[in-house]
Each structure stands twice: as structure tokens, then as C-alpha cells.
Give the backbone structure.
Amino acid sequence: MTMATLERRAVLGLAGALAAGVTLAPGMTLLAAPAERTEASAGRRWAMLIDTTQCAANCTACTTACRKENNVPLFGEPSRDIHWIRKVEIRDKDQRRPTVSLPVLCNHCENPPCVHVCPTEASFIRKDGIVLVDEHRCIGCRYCIIACPYKARSLVYHETKRGAESNPDVPIRSKGVVEKCTFCVHRLDNGQEPACVEACKGEGKGAMLFGDLNDPRSEIAKRVHTVATKTMRPDLGLKPRIYYQGL
Amino acid sequence: MIDEFAAIEGRSQGYWKLLAGMGVLLLLGAAAFIYIEVNGHGVTGMNNTVVWGLPHVFAISLLVMASGSLNLGSMSTIFAVKHFKQFGRFSAFLSIVLLAGGLTVLTLDLGRPDRMLLIMLHMNFRSMFTWNVFLYSGFTVLCFLYLWSMFQFPQYTKAAGSAAFMWRFILTTGTGSIFGVIHAREVFHSAITAPTFVAISLTSGTALSILLLLASFRLTARELDLRLVHALRNALIFFLLLVLYLLVVEKFTKFYSPAFYAVETWILSGSFAWLYWGGVVVLGILAPLGVLFNAKWGNQVGGIAFSSGMVVLGLFCFVGFVLIAGQSYPLDMFPGYEVSSVFQDGLEGSYAPTLVELLLGLGGIGVSGLLYLLGIRFFRLLPRKAVVPQGWDVAWRP
């Protein structure tokens, strides 16, 4: 065996190891990262009821609270900003009913098309029905954004950085992956309500009601069964868990 | 008659120029990828309404043509048109290189391409993307087996060719279904979307094969019997009529139901109508048919090549229309209501592709082009001369 052969082998081996490392390392690191999903109870079905008659057009308490709680930045580009929750104005095309302002967010559907189309199972349904995105598994294919009928998902187009006002309990938004509302799952697991609901109760008029649909004693279960409510695009068969009252 | 196969010499200045040209495209594509990877998709024209842009148009067009390029091989292996046997190797190889180009762009346009390995580790079998991973890799393997059998084991060519033939239909159905199955998107949610993709793969694959055969034979001074080109012209006419038929049936069905009036009117007269009428219908179907049906142009190599060029461009317009218009049409979140918000709800999506996206897409063409040029240089893919017996002629001519 000549020196030249040995050197060639060494170079080839090194190149192979390097290539394997470059290919596998990001995946290996990310595989270890998914957060624990142990707090969810299969018996619960979290849902939200929004009373549109109590939602003021000029109130953005819910969207502001969401941004602050979840480190959702504004890039100043309307088409690329990330919106976990947004205020939408809807006007009856026949002009028979007044204009309504209401928040739109992920509907945490029972049959979520985003979960169905996700090739890596990065989008998944937690035991308690919350639809989440595993940011460490998302490859940024954006198929879920195409599939969602509520425009509830956003791709993070720019790098984001943790600032002095960032919430340390929540990660910053990661460039190249898809983001959406989590129902403030970190708060739920600590027995708190989502930040938007809390803000609506405080600064707003209490238009948002959050709770467990499977608990017949819960306020939301009672309201959903006694008051006329609507969901977005029920014809799609997705069984959304955001109910609107007053539409 | 099947003549002996031979690799091209590949020593001419023209060959090296073509090779360099494709190499430059590949390098530009690589540079564009790195630029997007470092800076994020913010440097593209994409946004949260139009999330799939020009790179996807290139990628999916190449993948559709990959499936269609197998036509020439299938003509001999499946439909026993033995005069096309001499193009079998070319056909299978072209499918592989187009697939390589398309998949390269598709994977490099991911938000996190460094995680693409995760597709192999965590599979969601309800996702059309997951199915497409199997369909693309399976098609590549079958094309390799088909090619290999043609080189060394002709007794297995029928079996391998038949498997690849069936697979390509499923493959393109899978590609079309990426769009067709999405209920939320009114522009492309339809059972006929996937068959239309299959039909358009037949037109564009045949057209690209015609262009490449004409160019390859002419530039290497090999003989290509005009009657073979005429036979391909007839196939192209048939496939174009098939696409036209599917488009007409779709519009007829949709316009029969008032529920689709709004979206269909938008398609035919809205802000992307120029792409639909100009690119898909006129450039992709009617103009090529007009030329091919013409008694003079339809029998000339120039006329057939020109039509083939239009058909290939028409494919890009079709995919561009499905993708960009399909995403731009506002989601109907509250039927019966007009909606508006800071997130541009209720508005048509806007999308202006940037240079970096164009370069990434062209990089895919560079990959395919480079592989094709190297393939015909190092493998015996093309016949020394492609001829048919003396008394044989096509059944119909314009």
C-alpha cells in the first residue's frame, strides 16, 4: 500500500464523514428537541366562543397580548407579517346587517387539513385537541398554509431575535418554519387561559370565552349548547373549535 | 430499423459551450439557493398569501415533463410502435434527468432544506407530499431499471417499461393531486385537476422530446427520419386535443353550478386571465394546434419545433396559473360577507418574483441540462441514425 493510496483514502474518508455530518447533524440535533407533550388530557376539548356583539372594532387587546406573550414579531410588511390572531372586519354583501369586527385565529379543527398534508408530522393534534406545529420538525414546505382555509398560518420570512421585552418562557419565531396560534399551550398547562382571552377580559369587553367543551359544567359548553353560534366554513367538514356568537 | 446506438463525440466547441452554459445555470442556481438560505425567504417575492412562487413553477413543470418524457419509450414498449424503440434509452434517461432537476429545486426551496432528511424519518401517509416522495423515488428506480434492461437485459424491457408506464400515471396523478385535493382552494380543488396534469405531461413531455431529438440529431449531424417527427407530431396533436377537452369539460361543469360563478368568472376575466387565456389556452394549446394542423407548417421541422416550444412554454404557464392564481384568489372564510384585515384578508394575493427565485428555478434546468449533455456524451443513449423502413409512413398528415 503506497502513501498516495493512504492519503487518498484518508481524504475520501474525511470527505465522507464531513458529508454525512453535514447531512445528518441538523436532523440529529432537531430530533432530540421536541418539547414534552405530557400535560394534555385526552378527555378535554379546548374551544373558544367569541361573542361578536361584544367585540369592539377599535379594540386590539387580543392581538397585542398574543404578540407579547408569544414573541410574534411585526416585520412591517403587511403581506409577510406573522399573525397568530388578527382582527377581521366582515360586511354583509347584501348590506342588510351591520359590519362586524371579530378576531380570527387557528380554529384547532377536529379534522385539520394542515395536519393531513404535513409530510413530516410536524403539524399534529395534541391529546386535548390543540393543533400544534413542532418547530423542530417543520421543513418549511408551506403545504399547510395552502391547505388551511382560515389563513391561520404564516411562514417566518425573516430572522427574529430575542429582545428585552421578549417572553423568556416562549421561544422566538424561527426563520423558515411555519407558525400559528397554540391556544397558549404553555399557559394552559399551567392552569392559565390563553393570553388573548385574558386580555379581552381585562382591556376588552369580555367577548372571548375559553374552556373545555367536554366538561358539561363549563361555561363554554353551556353557551355553545344554548346560544346560536356559527363556525367558519362548516361546509368543509373540518369541525372548527372557534365558535362565533352574534353573526 | 434500429441502428446501432452511440454516444456523441462531445468534442466540438458547440458541445462545450452548451455544457458551460448549463454549468453556469447550475452555479447561479446554487448561489441563489445559498442567498435564500442565508437571508430567508424574505428575499423572494413570496409572502403569506402566495407561499409557493417561481421555484415551484420550475420544479413542478420539470417533474410534469419528466413523466411525459417517458412517452417515446412507452410507444414502443407498451404500444408496440417498434420504430420508437430507438428512442427508448433517450426517453428513460430524459425522465430521470428532468426528475433530478425538478426535485433539486423543490427541495432547495424549502424553508428549512437542512431538515429534508426528516421527510424520510417521519412520514405522514395522509399527505400527498409523502406519497410523492415515494412516487418520485420509485419512478427514478423504475426508469433506471427500464434503461438498464434496454442496455443489457432486453428480455426484461417489457416488464420494466410497463411498470414505469403505470408508475408515471400514478406519479403525475400524485403531482396534480397536491393541488386537486385541497378543498380550501377553489381555483384548483377539483377531481379533474390530476387528470389534467397527466394530460399536460403527455403534451409537454412529447414536445420537449421532439425539441431535444431535433437539436441533438442536428448538432451531431445524425440522420433523423422526418416521418418519425411526423409521427410524434400526430401524437402531440392528439394529446393537445385531450388537454383542450379536459379544460372545456372542467369549465362546462363549473359554470353549470352557480356556486362556482364567482371563482370561474375571476379565472376567465380576473387579474390572471391573461395567463389563462394567453399562456394556457392560446400559447399552450390553440396556437400549437393551429400550426400543427396547417398543411405547410405542420409538415415542416421548423413548424413542429416551433409548436413544441410553445407547448413547453404553455406547460410553464399552466403550472404558473394553477399555483399563483390558485393561491392569489381570496379565501372565502365567511361566505356571503366581504372581509378585510391587516393580513390582507379578502384581497387578491400579490406576487412579484425576484431574480433570485428565477435563478433558483433556472438552476433546476441547469441540473437537467448538464446531466442530459453528460449522459449523451458518456452513454449510448441515441441511435447513430433514426430511420424507418422504406414504405412506412404516418397514418395522417395535415
About this structure: Residues 41-245 of chain A form a domain with the Alpha-Beta Plaits fold (CATH 3.30.70.20). Chain A touches chain B through 63 residues (CB under 8 Å). Chain A has two domains: 1-32, 41-245.
